[in-house]
């Protein structure tokens, strides 16, 4: 029987987008525990139709295909609709059923297998089945058959309260995400950026010596330090040659190797791919044994040996929706993280004050398990941690922008004919920003995913323009010609011509949305008779053939006009977060240089067409 704080995995499957099982792994030790728990609770099988044992790979694939048909997609509806069937996930009427699903096998009289954590990465579907108690399964099966919808206030049973009592669900998600990263080759460490100009010797010189002296910031690679000189060299090569895993026979060997080390017998121990790879390559030696009075943490399986230093990088990502409309306020949010690399011998503690925690108006805050965080509330929040090996994320946060938008202005696009549009950009970059903040590059992209661009006409006030088949790209500032200590105004009027419009009727989800063809035909006749604005008529004609909104992406009609901005800002954070290298203390005291840098990049920084449609979420008034 699983305890309240344990996480054990009964099995996992990896399916391709052709709904075939590429890889599977069952854990007999955990399955034996499930069978023992099931034997103690006979009603689990007799009354609640719970699957008695694990299905075969072919049964899993068939059940997954059946669920996709029944629920409309691999994720499912997440809400109860007219087509929902009693006993299905959508019948529960909770969006979490798009991520924690159940499967029914026909061979076992539609018995249920739950909870299956579904993680989609690339072209793969990863299913992870954690061990839960029979009572939890019985509770879920009752939810699948009740007549009322959703999680009503005061209800005796709800899916949210059930999952709160299942920490194994969180562990299963972590396993699924790590497996997804491995099979798609996305196993990377957080980026640490330092200045390449000063020479600090050792590893940094070996990384930057062949490049030459430059005033530009350089990212630090993440080689894992070995316990010996030869081990360090070997592990450095390993870090630079991390396999980019794709559809190769080697995939199964890599996954098997990771599973056998990270979660032997089905219990996750260490899901850090870097730690596991380093241990396999370097092994252990007598010098890796810590002093008797110190306990070696799980995140540092062996000790670092070499030149000592500490590197910090605050990396912020700016997400914005700029409307330039009186009735819709602009929205700008920052997602940030403090990346660290502590190359320190032994098991020291590092402490420093984090500046700007209050002024940054932080909404969410989370820390690495190695950190000890007291109650915060002061301007300078003291943070103590014992650094693990390699690059790691010490802290994550979400905050409001402490300054104005780095790029403000508007974008307008108007269709002057069926195959030609006139557009206008008027932007101001870095207004109100002072040195040392500098913009490294800035690019604006106009995507046209359903129109083929033939040509464009127009000259921007600054920068260069290039055209691809489905987009126009405006490079306002190019790398190497950044701006600092001043604002720049950029305008770009022009026209873009498209290939003749060819309506493409895409199959709509008729079972869910009804007969969209007939409705659109009627709507077209009415609009043709009543619409006085020729531009609106042209836009409607272009958009009427777009695919109906899919529940997978509720805002992606592809009918909205927008431009996307990409940029990088160096020299400081936009939230106000900062670290003073002189305030960093190490216990016991050692001589180790401390370097600090910041980097701000754009996320989804969107300029919505002020003359077109745009999605907006209502926000509560303060």
UniProtKB/TrEMBL annotation:
Transmembrane segments: none
GO CC entries: AP-type membrane coat adaptor complex; cytosol; late endosome; lysosome
Organism of origin: Anisodus acutangulus
Annotated localization: Endomembrane system
A Gene Ontology BP annotation from the UniProt entry: protein transport
Organism placement in taxonomy: Eukaryota, Viridiplantae, Streptophyta, Embryophyta, Tracheophyta
Domain of life: Eukaryota
Designated name of the protein: MHD domain-containing protein
Sorted UniProt keywords: Membrane, Protein transport, Transport
Membrane topology: Peripheral membrane protein
Domain MHD: 307-570
